[in-house]
Structure formats: C-alpha cells, structure tokens
Amino acid sequence: MQAAKVVLSALEGFFLLLVQHWIWTGIIVVLLAAALWLENWWLSKKRPRDLTGNGIAIGQAKAFDSSSLTLRLQRLNAGLEALKIVNQNITDNLSSVQERSSIESSASVSVANKADGGKDASDKNPPAERKGSGGDAKGAPTAEAKPSVGLGAGDALTNQLNLASQIFNLQTLYEGSLSDRMIASESRLQTVLGFQVSVSPPAGYEDSVAVVEMAVRTKAIPAAPPAAAQVPKPISLIALMPQEKTYNAESTASAQRSLRGSAVTKFLSLGLGGRRSSSGIFIRRDPETVAFERKPSDTPKLLENATTFGWEFRPELGRSAVSPGPRQLMAVIALPVEDRTTAGETILEVQTRSYWRRYDRKRQTSDYAFSYLPWRVNRSGESTSEIQTLPIPNTAAIQQTLAARVTEVDWTDIGGDRTYVKVTGRNFFPGTKVLIGGQSKQEKDGTLTLKSEQVLEFEAPLAALVMGDGVVIGRYGKSVGLEDTRDRPIYSLNIWTASIRPMRNAKVLRLTVDIVGQDQNGVHQPFSVDKLANLPDPILCVGNETVPGPYDFSNPNPPPSGAPTTVLRVEAWISASSLAKSREVSFRVPFCGLDFYINQPIAYSEPSVTRMGSDPSNTVFRIYFPQVFATQSDVTVDLDKTYSAAPELVAMGFTTSGASEYRLTVSNDLIARYQNLVVRTGKGEPYVIPIPQEEKPPLKMTLDSNAAPSKITKGKHGPIEWQGNALDMIRIITFTPPAIMGAAAGTTATSVPQEFMTYSGGTRLVVYVSDAVTANEGKVTLDCATASGTTLKLPLFVVETST
C-alpha cells in the first residue's frame, strides 16, 4: 500500500512538471515526431526495391498441338469404357439399416433436510440393494445383436448409376461438342494454349489467394477506309487443365452443454443438474487450385470482345500462404475459323493479369485485399501484361512444317549380312517409324533408336538395302522416302562393261564392272573415285546374291576402249557357284533412288560346250564364246588330237569381224573314251571343259506285252513273276477283294498289301500273294503305285490246278 502511494506521488509530480514547462514539452514532442518522419522517409528511399513484383509471374502464351491432346483423350475414353461401375451385389444392402443414432444426456434432482447434513436421500439405500439391479444374476448387461448400417439397395444402385452418368459426361466432354468441332461446312480450328505461372508469395500476403486471368481473342482484320475493321468473333473455351486440385480433409465437430443449480432454505437444500453432449466426424474437400471463366457480360478488365478465363491458387492445408513454385496451365480453345486443307495461320491477341485476394479458409470465400494504412490501401498487387500476338497455324501448316525430313543416310556393314543404318534429318519425334525390307522399325519395339530429333539409327538386313529404299513415317505429315538428299555429283549411273576373268588354279572369279555417270539429258559425265565420298557406300550383286566386300575402286588410265569419259572401275571376287546361278550383275548405291540402280548381263570370256545330239556314228557339240574372235584359227579343241579346221571344227556365221559360235563333230567311240575337252583361244590359257553327258529320256513303267499271262493255282501264294521296264519304280502293290454277296450296304473292301521284289535292273518283278488273292478262281488284278503317283495294273489268272 505504501509503495502504491509512492508511485502515485511520482506520477503526480511528473505531470505537474510537464504542465509548468508545456512549451518545451511541445517542442520536444514536435522534434521527436519530425525525426521519426525523416527516418521513415530515408528508409523508404534507401531500402532495396522488391524485384519480384507482386510475386506472380505469367510467362508468354504458347500454342500446342491439339491433335496430340485429342489422341490422348481418345485413349482416356477407351479406358473409361472399360470401367465396371454397377456392382452385382446390390442385394446385400437389403438388410442394412439407414440410421443409428445415440444421444447421451443426464439429469438429477436432490432434496435434503439440513438436519441430515445435506446427504442425498438415495444414499440411505444400502449398496447391497443396488448391486444386482438390471441384468442377469451376475449383474452383466445382456448383449444385443447390432444390425449393419449402410445405404439401402435402391440408394446404392442410384449412386452407381449416377457415377456411370458422370463417366458418360466425361466421355462426351473429351469427345468435344459439335459446335467446337464444326463451323459452317468445315471443321473448326482448335488449339491448346499453355501458360507457365510461377508463384512466390511476398511477405504480408498470408491468408491470400493468387489469381491469374487470361483474355484471348482473334486479332481484328483491318479494312481500308471508309469500311470499319472487322470485329473479332468470340473464341469458345473447351476445357481448362487443371480444372481443379483438391485435398480430402477430416473435420471433427463436438458440442457439450451442462446446467447446474442449487437453492438453500432454512430447512431444505435443493439441487438441479443436467448435461448433454454430441460429436461428429466428416470428410470434406479443400480446393487448392480452381479454374474459372468470366461471364462475357462482365465489364472487361482486359481485352474487349475476348474470352476471359483463369485460375485461383489457394493455400494448402496447414499453411497460411500459397505454396511457391511453377504451375503449367493449359486451355483448350476453338477458334472461330475453318481448319482448311491449305496451310495458313490465325493471329490471336492474349493479355494476362494477376492479383491477390484475401481468403477466409473457414468459409472458403475471398474478398478484396486492402490495408488500413492510408498510403497502402490497395493490397491486391495487380499486374497487367502487354498485349501478346500469337500466331496459330492450322493443321495443314503443322503437318507441312513438322513433317519428317531426310538429308543424309549412311550405313555400315556389321557382318553376318547385317547393316547398321544412320539417318540424319529433322523432325524425328517420338512415334517415328521406318519401313524397310518388309519390316517395321519402331522405338517401342527396340528396333529403332531416336538419338535426337535430327538423328535416328536402326539395324537392317543387307538384303533390305539391295531390294529397295525404305520409308520414314513421321509423327506429322506424309511419309517420306528413306533417300539421301545431299548434292550428288551426277544425275544417274550406267554400266559401260561388266566382265568375268577366271583365275587358274583357283575356284574364284574376278568380276570387273566399269561405270560411267550421266546428266539429266543422258550425256556421259566423268565419274571418279572422289565422287563416291558424297554418296552412301555402294553394293555389288550377281543375280540375287550380294557380292561380299571389300571392293576395289579405281579410275583406269587410259579408260576402256570406246569409253567417252572417265569411268569408275569396281572389282571384286566372286565364286563360281554364284556365277552359275545368274549371269547378271547389278550395281546399287543404297538410299539414292532408282537412278543409282543399274544392272547388265556379264560378258563371261569362258566358253560353254553344249551337246546337240548324235547319230549312230558321230556326236555334234556346240562351242560358244561370249566374245568374238578375229579369225577361226584363234580357236582350237584338243581331244585325241588338235581340231582347228573343217570338217570337224566349223565356225558358224563367220564374218569379217569374227565368230563366237563353233560346231565340233567327233565319232561316238572317241567321245566314249574321253571326259574333258581342252579349248584354246589364241595364245591364252586353255579352258578345260567337261564333256556334257548324253541326256536319256526318263523310263516309263510298262509290262512286257509279248509275255504269256501269269497264272497261279487256287489257294497258293506264288511266287508269280512279271517282265517289263522300270519296274523298280514300284513302291507298293495292293489287292482289293471284290464285294461279298449279302454284305451290308455302304461297306467298302479294304486293300491288302502284297509282298514283292524287283531285280535285273527293274525288268523283273516277283510277287508273293496273300490268301485273299487266290481264294476264288478267275481273273484278278493287282494295283501297283509309284512315289510319283503313277499306277500299273498286274493281271493274274487263278486256276483250279496248275497245267
């Protein structure tokens, strides 16, 4: 008490001092206020500026391909159709109850005589009297079965049908409305606009939502005076992505109410009391992102005659500020123009705005963002961008611009008749395929590798490069040929000569091909080894077989006789078996089109000998040379002697330029003693050629018609002998018994195989017959069959006794 008096006395003295010196007190107060104002002014000028603006950054609008989104939505639609919504066990809900509630309440009244010390009258009952009240003999309450709680069967069915209807609504939404897909008699141009929004909430924007708005319209088309500019038509908003982003939150609500009262009189004590409580738990959705579209009738804050839409970002659960970070937002719109088949584009005008609003989480409402400070009343931080012009190409322009392009194709032989092909170009997007050699190369199958949008690689058989060029099927546009489009030194190729030189004491041949170049008019052009560097590696083939490398390339100097210019000579080793299959050589530069694929018969210098025929004394042979010789004396044939002139060796069609065909006539006895002919051409090395053997006509299986008919005694087995030709061709002999009298209709006799053998070069046939053959007298027939299907009938007579 004494301390309080001292404090009051000190305050009273300080107040009197201020009153006595009020002038100086006022001056000091004014000076302090001026100093505070100057400090605040100095801080406002010197403090760093906020470089983030309002904390909401909206990037430039970007146009995406709507066809890609359409394909993905179609796959999503297919997945929605596979969902099974209606549950077949709805009847299980027939026994469920739809409500079960409990309320806990209590009330008490007490009256007591003050003479009893305020004890409750109920306390007079001894505990033993209350011990067994309500229950069984042991005092335990009786358990009751509790029915299951759930929706009724009809309500469960209704919920499932409603869910199925929502899925149908989603499918209809993803498919798109007819008004968004058609305009007049043409398809309507659609596009996807993308916006990159980055949010970084500044201090002071707690319990606030970030709002971004976009206004989009087509650019007005100017008109020459005095006509007015065309007013842009409105744009249709198809979908916003994301449409919303929500969280499931669990909320608990509880309430308790209690009442207590008492009254005391002279003789009685009265007490009243009551309590009531309730609680509940429920799940609610708390949105974090919400998409919206403004009404066209609202006063435009951005562009006039534009479609305005946007997104609102709210604080996440448990946070007071919007979560910082980038957001990728997309809007699918339909433009008021036709999507024509000719390439073109439509210009859009886009303007964006961002600002903040106060947010009431409990009510999930927003309001103006303001401050009570007079110099910072508006706290929305509104920021409006400049008008952006965005060209939107139509589908034809997209397909034309983003179509796959091939510039270079190179391949490498990796052995085992396999090659590795590298394709350089552009617009090789995911989903690009290559068709070559009847095979499909795709990235998802692991048969094609996309190195980048400019390079792809794949493995292919060597035969696929020989058969023809492939096709590249890109994500956009039409397919393009797998053709190297680099500048070529020449327009096309032509084979000047192709020849074979045999190598003595070896089983390989030397193939030589001379190639010349041509321009567009077919005029021969020089083709040197250096010009191969600008082309893919060539492939040499004989018939359908690829000639294995490496190849030898050269420019012969001087060029071959008669060649009009420099030629490219290609040499390689081939086997005699390859030459025996085909006498045609082909030269191909893969991936360069048909102008770089040429073929020609091979001029083979080795002569060929053909057996023309014979008479009883002599045999005639034809000797053919691919090349023409100057005189007949250049050709000689060695057998028992040297044949160089008539009458044995005669030139056929001999002219002043020489002959390439000769006829050799020798006796049959002489030919029977020799196996090879030695043919010489001038002073060159001789050719040892096997003498062609006489081709005999194939034998025909026949029986000797002059022989007596074969007989056998009834019940005997043989053997029985026949004579003929080519009887060793028989593979099986069977006998089919005749039908038995009285047999059931429709039954067929079974053929019985017979034992046989042939000898004497197929001229003799011996058969051991079964019991069924000789069971009855008369004529029977045995059936003979060969591997080729030829048949022969063997007649046989069964007699009573042999004669």
Structural class, by secondary structure, is: mainly beta
Q: How many H/I helical runs? A: 10
Bulk shape: elongated
* Annotation, overall tally of beta strands: 50
| CA gyration radius, whole angstroms | 54 Å
Q: Report how far the terminal alpha carbons are from each other.
A: 172 Å
Q: How confident overall, as mean pLDDT?
A: 80
Percent range for β-strand residues: 35-45%
The unreliable regions are 118-143
What percent of residues adopt helix (DSSP H or I)?
A: 10-25%
**Biggest beta sheet summary:** 9 strands, antiparallel
Structure write-up:
- With 803 residues, this protein is mainly beta.
- It contains ten helices and 50 strands.
- 19% of the residues are buried.
- Strands 3, 6, 8, 9, 10, 12, 13, 14 and 15 form a nine-stranded antiparallel sheet that branches.
- Helix 3 packs antiparallel against helix 5.
- The chain is 14% helix and 42% strand.
